[in-house]
Amino acid sequence: MDLSFDLLGNALVSGVLLGGFYAAVTIGVSISFGMLDIVNIAHPAFVILGSYTAYIANSVFGFDPILSSIVLLPAFYLLGVAIYHVYDVSFERRGDASIRGLAFFFGLLFITEVTLVLVFGVDYRLVDAPYVGPSLHIGVIDLPLRLLVPCLVSLALIGALQLFMSYTFIGRAVQAVAQDPMALRLMAADPSRIKRIAFGLSIASASIAGAVLIIIQPVEPSIARDYIGRIFAICVMGGLGSFGGTVLAAMILGIMESLTSTFYGPSWSPAVAFGFLLITLAVRPAGLFGRR
Amino acid sequence: MSQALLTVAGLGKRFGGFVALADVQLQVGDGERLGLIGPNGSGKSTLVNCLCGTLHNDTGQVTFGGTDLNGLSAHQRTRLGIARSFQLPRPFPTLTLAENVRVPILFAADVKAGRTVTDPRRRCEELLDMVGLLPKARRKPADLTQIEMRKLELARAMASEPRLLIADEAMAGLSHQEVDDILALLMTLSAQGVTIIMIEHIMRAVLAFSQRLVVLVAGRKIADGDPQDVIRQPDVVAAYLGS
Amino acid sequence: MVNVRFLLLALVAAALTFAVARLIDNAYVFFAGYVVLQYIVLATAWNILGGYTGYVNFGTAAFFALGAYTTVVLHKTVPVLPLPAMMLVGGLISGVIGLGMGYLTLRLRGTFFSIATLAMAVVAQTLITNWNFVGGSRGAYIIRPAESPIFPGDYIQYLFVVMLLLSVISVAIARAIQHSRLGYGFSAIRDDELAAEASGVPTLRLKLIATALSGGLMGMAGAPLPYYVTYLDPASGFSLSYAVNTIAMPLIGGTATWLGPVIGAVLLGTLQQVATVTISSALSLLLVGLLLVGFVIAAPKGIMGWFAR
């Protein structure tokens, strides 16, 4: 283990950039699990779906992946609304949310993955964009644009969502619903409708997260599973429902993974997130920045 | 003088910055009928949860029948002889009424007595009969009315053969006649030797039932004594009863 | 505890199944049958923790693969060990791991436990992938003996019988639990854990028992796998399809009793074998996913629920 400053410095920087991206992938679950208490373990599959839609836009039509993902936001939003509707009618209203709700999302995860395999096969897919190749160099530190641009886009996405949550009526209603559905009802707002909007936003974020993912790395259907652990590790570590906590926890995870990968080899990376998750759950389930 | 069955000393509980209970002290004698009243949010439910082990108190000590309860889990306390009925009834929805009552028999009453009930079905029937629910023994809780749910709660609490029963707002939302029903049931149980703490807002029931009355306001005990005296105390009137 | 009459009936059914399979005298029947029987064990095991106790385990593959890899290790170190002994060891190790994981996570809400099971599966897979003794990511080759050690016939028939007996044992255990004090405790935990505690049920202890038992049976189901496939690598051993199937089968068959997982396993298992041969294995997996989601939405009590009226 050669602890050279170059290697360490670059690993740290990559980790931070990666962490920014991880936060974007997680933010949807911060909303659905953190605020709405819906365990959407299928979220990574929707992110991968976002990757593939960006891929099609890019390879077939030559569009920039990030721009096309923004154009596709309404489509993903509607998908989220539709899924929430089925979930609400089938489980939430029946009061049977636990086992069957989990199985429902697990089924969706599986169906999405298998369908993508059937349509696209198991080959890795990439996108082509002007920022995929080049890097900036600051001293001994390399800043690959393929990591930097996604990180910046991710942070912009989270910033936009945070602004929405804090300054719009619907955003504040979502936060209210997270804390006290009854009070919201008394304000003559329909919790169901608010939750539907929130879940729609959650899935919409997957469009951008997916585009950003396929810029960072080549994508094939089964990598969704690697992200389940990362997402929930970040959510739990960051404290459910806290966007700031999510970003910080994501950065920490990104750095840990980057260091592990640099010094011990990439084959240990998947275990880092999950290992963190297990330890956090065992020791401090409220997370590093959690409320409860 | 008989030793107190339940002794609570210096009990405190906080949720973050919010002080739910502060320095609560209480003694309940064996076979006593104690009433516990106070405004909403005064900490009554928190107190019950701390006594039963659903929550763990931050400070203070609870002694039951000579045993220190600190650190004991809820099921261990039930096995020692503390039972409670939930304010919002929590029956087991997929089990029949008979099966609902059977769970505490199997896991509390038996364990406590160190034996196996020879005929659990008969014991279930006895308990359901006591609350008048025997005809519905094979039905599920979803088929019950509000008062029947409350009675099921009490039957389940009794199934664990407790020495102390805490009835947490068992009469809330019931009609005049239904309140009398529950009151009669609790008096019967008391006559059988069970120590009962009744937490209620319905004053006529509390006064009819209690030998002693405790008042909790903002997490602190402000009165403890003969019911007729307590309800005339100025601070009790001001805080809870109104003039 | 275990109803003797039921056990005898089950053994008779098992013997008949084997006799019919021998009569048909087609090796494929044994290969396909093994898979269906394996799923009976997995679905039944899952249901003890899932359907009875209400805790969803997504990490079936971990317990299953741990059993399989225990056999790989034993095969390399103590090859004289007979298969049933290897299964016991595999089951024991899986059971202990289940216990350990349960101890870490069962004090939390059910959803956190479920996520933790997913985590455990990935951690286990990563550890095995990095362990060169069992072949790492390149996999391990196991030579399947030609002849069955007990009765005249191919080794695959021996594997079939072993799995048949394990099915009988699992189902007998599940049924015994259902009608016992333990079963009441599990149901209470599933229905309302807080009320269960208040009723005197030692919830943590029972949950640990369920997890250890469930994990142990899954490990035993995985133990013969290396001899069945002859080549085992982490990707296939830890395949997500195991998790989906073991969840789908009890949910489709019905989670309330021991019979539901069996029905689900037989139906879904056979369906997949047929679909894999006629359409494609990817499509058959898609079918499982669709059926799972469909049943969970439209028929929450499963097939058994249709008959319970």
Task: Please write out the topology.
The complex is a heterotrimer of chains A (292), B (243) and C (309).
Chain A: H1 5-35, H2 43-61, H3 65-71, H4 73-92, H5 97-120, E1 135-138, E2 141-144, H6 145-167, H7 169-179, H8 181-186, H9 191-216, H10 224-238, H11 243-264, H12 269-283
Antiparallel strand pairs in A: 1-2
Chain B: E1 4-15, E2 18-29, E3 33-37, H1 44-52, E4 59-64, E5 67-68, H2 74-80, E6 82-85, H3 97-113, H4 120-130, H5 146-159, E7 164-168, H6 176-191, E8 195-199, H7 203-209, E9 212-217, E10 220-225, H8 227-230, H9 234-241
Parallel strand pairs in B: 3-8, 3-9, 6-7, 7-8
Antiparallel strand pairs in B: 1-2, 1-4, 4-5, 9-10
Chain C: H1 4-24, H2 27-52, H3 60-77, H4 83-105, H5 110-129, E1 140-141, H6 155-178, H7 181-191, H8 193-198, H9 203-222, H10 225-229, E2 231-232, H11 234-237, H12 240-253, H13 259-278, H14 281-298, H15 302-307
Antiparallel strand pairs in C: 1-2
Describe the model:
The complex is a heterotrimer of chains A (292), B (243) and C (309). Chain A has 292 residues and is mostly helical. In chain A, 75% of the residues lie in helices and 3% in strands. Chain A is built from twelve helices and two strands. In chain A, a hairpin with a 2-residue loop joins strand 1 and strand 2. In chain A, helix 2 crosses helix 3 (65-71). The longest helix of chain A is centred in the N-terminal third of the chain and has 31 residues, at 5-35. A six-stranded mixed β-sheet of chain B has the order 6-7-8-3-9-10, sandwiched between helices. The longest helix of chain B is centred in the middle third of the chain and has 17 residues, at 97-113. Chain B is globular and about 50 Å long. In chain C, helix 1 packs antiparallel against helix 6 (155-178), helix 2 packs across helix 13 and helix 3 (60-77) packs parallel to helix 5 (110-129). The two termini of chain C are 28 Å apart. Chain C has 309 residues and is mainly α. A two-stranded antiparallel sheet of chain C has the order 1-2. Chain C has a single domain, classed as ABC transporter involved in vitamin B12 uptake, BtuC, CATH 1.10.3470.
| Series of secondary-structure elements of chain B, N-terminal to C-terminal | EEEHEEHEHHHEHEHEEHH
Net shape of chain A = globular
The major β-sheet of chain B equals: 6 strands, mixed
Main interface: chain pair and counts = A-C, 41 and 45 residues
Assign a percent range to the helix content of chain A.
over 70%
Largest sheet of chain A: 2 strands, antiparallel
Query: Runs of chain A with pLDDT <50, length 5+?
Result: none
Number of domains of chain A: 1
